[in-house]
Amino acid sequence: DNPSTLRMLEKAAKIPHVRGIELVGTWDVTPAGAKKMKKRLSDLGLECVSIIPDLFADKKYWKGSYSSNDVKIRKDAIRYTRQMCDAAREMECKLLNIWPGQDGFDYLLTCDYGSYRSYFRDAVSEIAQAYPDLKFALEYKPKEPRCFSLLARMADTLLMCQETGCSNVGVCID
């Protein structure tokens, strides 16, 4: 059995020197529950230091979120991320960690590489420009869960950050 978010927070609060917690959007915090979660954290002597929007576990994103070929999916991913940005503001959290776990491919020559990079870049740029008071970290991983992730290496991720043209977008080193 998985412990509840509150139970995990209570356990984390007992670890010496832990003061900041990263929450996963929708799993741990929702836009409607942000104020309540901020109070829970405060009561435990903790603060939210980062929110990861869930762009990876929801099956609608199984073929990508910001880089999906489906414009409706891309727009939904942006809309959802904006909601998580609003939740972050409500909680006085200054960082969103973007992990595009499903944004990638499993077999070579199965996507239009230029388009899917452009879709992703444009989405991150749009969100970062809309929330200049927040910082956005792009988290890279070589092959989890896709065989070939969009942000597979630090170099890919640094280039993506640069291509957004936004000074509030950087790299998350996991």
Molecular structure report:
The chain has 174 residues and is an alpha/beta fold. The chain has five helices and seven strands. The strands form three sheets. The protein has a three-stranded parallel beta sheet with strand order 3-5-7. It has a two-stranded parallel sheet with strand order 1-2. The longest helix has 20 residues, at 71-90.
Main β-sheet: number of strands, strand sense, barrel status?
Answer: 3 strands, parallel
Strand content: 15-25%
Instruction: Estimate the helix proportion, in percent.
Output: 25-40%
SSE arrangement, N to C: HEHEHEEHEEHE
Number of strands: 7
The assembly state of the depicted protein chains is: single chain
Structural shape: globular
Q: Count every helix, treating DSSP H or I runs of 4 or more residues as helices.
A: 5
Average pLDDT works out at: 94
Radius of gyration: 16 Å
End-to-end separation: 26 Å
Structural class: alpha/beta
Question: What is the element layout, followed by pairings?
Answer:
Elements: H1 5-13, E1 20-24, H2 34-43, E2 47-52, H3 71-90, E3 95-98, E4 104-105, H4 113-130, E5 135-139, E6 148-149, H5 154-164, E7 169-172
Parallel strand pairs: 1-2, 3-5, 5-7
Antiparallel strand pairs: 4-6
Brief characterization of the structure:
This protein has helices at residues 5-13, 34-43, 71-90, 113-130, 154-164, and strands spanning 20-24, 47-52, 95-98, 104-105, 135-139, 148-149, 169-172. With 174 residues, it is an alpha/beta fold.
